[in-house]
Design goal:
Helix content is 48%, strand content 13%. It contains 13 helices and eight strands. Helix 1 packs across helix 3. The longest helix has 27 residues, at 48-74.
Length: 374
């Protein structure tokens, strides 16, 4: 009976005094064993957010493990054996690519996008290897995305999600080319109209009257406080959930949020216009979270019902609506485009220009109300 070959790299855990579990690799080669501590930690799962964070951490550890196995297989000469790489499962490439994204961007959201895309690719065609991916595969995946179901939202994937997933596959294949895993990215052979397109995105925002109506309407404080905080600071959901009391600073009598945004890694200093939108700190320490830890899906369930109760009609109100509301309120009150861009943490002014176009359109509509007077 053949004995099963031992895995050269294994994931191990070490429990620390604070209850966290440190993750390290047990690497065995040529009769020698060494350990690599990854500086990754599993935390006690007290909230859904903790569980989600641990899942991301474990995927990261597995990505590093896969990378080390490949490095051992290649030996120390640095010679690329493309025939071996071409047999690599696409799922494994996505794990390695996701880890690279996490290291470069320090963004959990971007890492989660890679993980979601990987899951979608497995649902499209399970067990795909790099050598199986050609132009027809890519065209088929693009077509699959138009019919794929969004199980969380009980419907089809949105145009934005379809473009996002396909764009992530394209980026992963470009990464594979740069690494020497494959010679060419098959997506580059596709015609423009064969790829998913995002289309025009509608940016719903609340008018000042609608926002005031929501402020006076009761809902769960777990959703209400972070949503209103975003309406008056423009922070994205991920940044609001990451906020600790150390990010709230008071200088010269002005209380501000000081944070490096998760998506763009841009530092922002945002004045808080009303301290009532901040929860009571009580005995919380500097490292404690400001807001109750929830997932975006959970918060949006509250927000949809809350908006309906407040009488907001004809708008798809989600947590991100708060950010759009912040931008349009500032511009409608006379703030200049450059200042708004800096407050939002945009890296390019053209991103902010979209909000200015919304305001200009509203001004035109208001002016046209006078057309019938004369």
């Amino acid at each position: 009976m053949k004995s099963k070959a031992k895995e050269p790299v294994k994931i191990r855990f070490k429990t620390l005094a604070n209850g966290n579990r440190s993750i390290y690799l047990d690497i065995y080669k040529d009769g020698k064993r060494r350990y690599e501590f990854l500086k990754l930690y599993l935390i006690p799962q007290k909230t859904p957010f903790d569980k989600q964070q641990n899942e991301v951490t474990l995927r990261t550890a597995n990505a590093i493990k896969s990378k080390r196995i490949i490095e051992l297989a290649n030996g120390d000469a640095g010679i690329i054996d493309r025939s071996a790489y071409e047999k690599m499962p696409l799922a494994q490439l996505m794990v390695i690519f996701g880890e690279e994204k996490r290291k470069k961007s320090q963004s959990l959201n971007r890492y989660r996008t890679v993980a979601s895309t990987a899951k979608s690719l497995e649902e499209y065609r399970k067990g795909t290897r790099l050598c199986d991916i050609d132009k027809d595969y890519c065209i088929g995946y693009a077509e699959y995305l138009t019919t794929a179901e969004n199980k969380r939202m009980d419907g089809k994937l949105s145009k934005t999600t379809r473009q996002c997933y396909f764009g992530t596959l394209n980026a992963a294949l470009n990464f594979a080319v740069r690494r020497g895993f494959i010679i060419q990215n098959p997506v580059s052979l596709m015609e423009k109209d064969e790829r998913p397109h995002r289309g025009k995105v509608q940016r719903d925002y609340l008018s000042i009257e609608e926002l005031q109506a929501m402020i006076t309407t009761k809902t769960s404080p777990k959703a209400k406080k972070p949503f209103l905080f975003s309406c008056f600071t423009g922070l994205r959901f991920g940044d609001v959930m990451r906020l600790t009391w150390s990010n709230i600073v008071t200088e010269n009598g002005i209380t501000k949020v000081h944070i490096i945004t998760e998506k763009t890694l841009e530092p922002v200093f945002i004045p808080i216009p009303n301290l009532a939108i901040i929860p009571e700190r009580g005995n919380a320490s500097e490292g404690d979270h400001v807001f109750c830890q929830l997932t975006n899906t959970m918060v949006n369930r509250y927000i949809v019902k809350w908006a309906e109760d407040a009488g907001v009609k004809g708008k798809h109100v989600t947590f991100h609506t708060a950010r759009h509301t912040y931008a349009t309120m500032l511009l409608s009150k006379g703030a200049d485009l450059y200042t708004v861009s800096k407050l939002l943490g945009h890296t390019e002014i053209k991103t902010t220009q979209i909000y200015a176009e919304i305001i200009d359109k509203k001004k035109e509509e208001a002016a046209n109300l006078l057309n019938d007077i004369i």
